[in-house]
From TrEMBL:
Naturally occurring in which organism (per UniProt): Fuscovulum blasticum DSM 2131
The protein's name in its UniProt record: YcjX family protein
One Pfam family linked to the record: DUF463
Record InterPro entries: YcjX-like
Top-level lineage group: Bacteria
Length: 471
């Protein structure tokens, strides 16, 4: 039996190398990860991306398309039989309905494969026929990505850091009251452990609604089939000094370790570590609307996220043997359609400033990192209104809450990103010299001509950066 296990393992390893050799030499595969925190617009981004790659009339910045080298793009069965398929058709049906609605948000990991038939360019054009390049789009919640930062933290460190954050936030008051009345050295009482976990989960939900980004553990917000299990029944406690066997502290520590070993590590091993290119979507406008503290949370979070990626390039032999690293990372500020195009450069500059520190480390390791502003699907049109003799570049759309048309001028973003980041890093509680408003728009009704995907903003530039070199 042991000999069979060894030979079976060797056989599977050889088959894996053979598959990677075939992939590398004949039909290359690009695994594109798409993530972002709640309300960043992952589902809409992916739906708009797929639709505009199938019908490329709005993709002039995609070089292979502009040069006429893309002969066809088509959907294929997804390669991983254990993952749900990204419901592209269902999401498009929601957007194309008589009364369009936003599709349901990401709740778990999903995947979809697009295949390109592309003619080579340059020197190879006369010697090779069309080649097939597969694009595997992997959609996963940003909350899961945040958990990778827990792998380097002990329960004691995580609990200490989390409780310090709660002290600064009104959303944490109820949970802190429970913790102050709790003795971590007391013997485990399962009912008390569950009450603490429920209260802590309530805090995480409230913190996320208030615009805070650092809400870990992520599966507390998106538990799926783990809801109610011991691996999600822990919470941060104050250090009791003594930690006898069977105490509440010891059990919380054990469950925290189990969460890392049985939830976080498998996600990294089975999915995250196989990604070649990555998009991280950021709701920068939402953070600015929430205030300086939300902006600082987002900045720190982007630095932690970039540390979680294994960045840089690997050689061809390492690629064949499965040692993948993320070669390109795009940080994208979404909802650019909530601003007049005159303010898009300011939004992009703020997004780039938010990731500047982490970007330098990634580029030093050999990865390419870029930041831009975009909209996976445009929900507004632009207007200029006059108020008190001032020209205000605005946008007009249909309000999600009422369905009625409304014109929004969100405020003028500064040309210098430091005017946003400096108050945020300095601990300011509100903007001193400006106020930024935000409305939530419903999707516009789509009337697509043959060969055109839905209207977007800079989706073609994002695709060119991420996969243009492989086409």
């Amino acid at each position: 039996m042991a000999l069979f296990g060894i030979t079976d393992g060797i056989a599977r390893g050889v088959e894996g190398v053979q598959a990677r050799v075939s992939e590398y030499l004949f039909e290359p595969v690009i695994r594109l990860g798409v993530t972002g925190l709640s309300r960043a617009g992952k589902t809409v981004f992916i739906t708009g991306l797929i639709s505009n790659l199938l019908a490329r009339g709005r993709m002039p910045q995609l070089t292979a398309e502009r040069e006429g080298r893309i002969e066809a793009v088509y959907l294929q069965p997804q390669p991983d039989d254990t993952l749900p398929r990204f419901d592209y058709e269902g999401h498009m049906a929601a957007l194309m309905a008589e009364v369009p609605r936003w599709p349901d948000s990401t709740r778990s990991i999903s995947e979809l494969r697009l295949s390109f038939r592309v003619r080579p360019g340059g020197w190879f054009a006369g010697f090779r026929g069309p080649t097939v390049v597969h694009l595997d789009i992997v959609d996963y919640p940003g909350e899961w990505l945040l958990d990778l930062s827990l792998m380097e933290k002990s329960y004691e460190t995580w609990a200490h850091d989390t409780l310090i954050r709660l002290e600064e936030r009104p959303e944490g008051a109820e949970y802190l009251a429970l913790v102050r009345a709790e003795d971590g050295a007391a013997r485990l009482d399962e009912a008390r452990a569950q009450a603490l976990a429920r209260s802590f989960t309530t805090y995480l939900q409230a913190a996320r609604a208030a615009g805070h980004s650092d809400c870990t553990p992520g599966r507390f917000l998106l538990p799926g089939d783990l809801a109610g299990s011991p691996v999600l029944t822990f919470a941060p406690l104050r250090h009791p000094g003594q930690m006898p066997r069977g105490s509440l502290w010891r059990e919380m520590e054990r469950r925290y370790a189990a969460y890392k070993d049985r939830v976080v590590a498998p996600f990294f091993r089975d999915h995250f570590s196989r990604i070649d290119r990555q998009v991280v979507l950021m709701d920068v406008l939402g953070a600015i609307h929430q205030g300086p503290r939300a902006v600082e949370d987002l900045r720190r979070l982007m630095a932690e996220i970039l540390q979680a990626f294994r960045v840089g390039r690997t050689g061809w032999l390492a690629t064949l043997l499965g040692a993948k690293r993320v070669e390109k990372i795009l940080f994208a500020a979404t909802k650019a359609d909530h601003l007049h195009h005159e303010q898009h450069p300011q939004l992009a500059a703020i997004a780039e400033a938010l990731v500047a520190e982490a970007k330098g480390r990634a580029e030093f390791a050999g990865a390419e990192v870029a930041a831009l502003s975009l909209a996976g699907l445009r929900a507004t049109v632009e207007e200029v209104i006059e108020r008190d003799g001032q020209r205000l570049p605005s946008v007009k759309g249909r309000l999600l809450s009422t369905g009625k048309p409304a014109v929004m001028y969100p405020g003028a973003l500064p040309a210098d990103p430091s005017r946003v980041l400096a108050p945020a890093r300095g601990g300011a509680t509100r903007w001193l010299d400006a106020e930024y408003g935000l409305m939530t728009f419903a999707p516009a009704r789509l009337n697509l001509r043959p060969g055109e995907g839905p209207p977007h903003i800079r989706l073609d530039r994002a695709v060119e950066f991420l996969i243009g070199d492989r086409l």
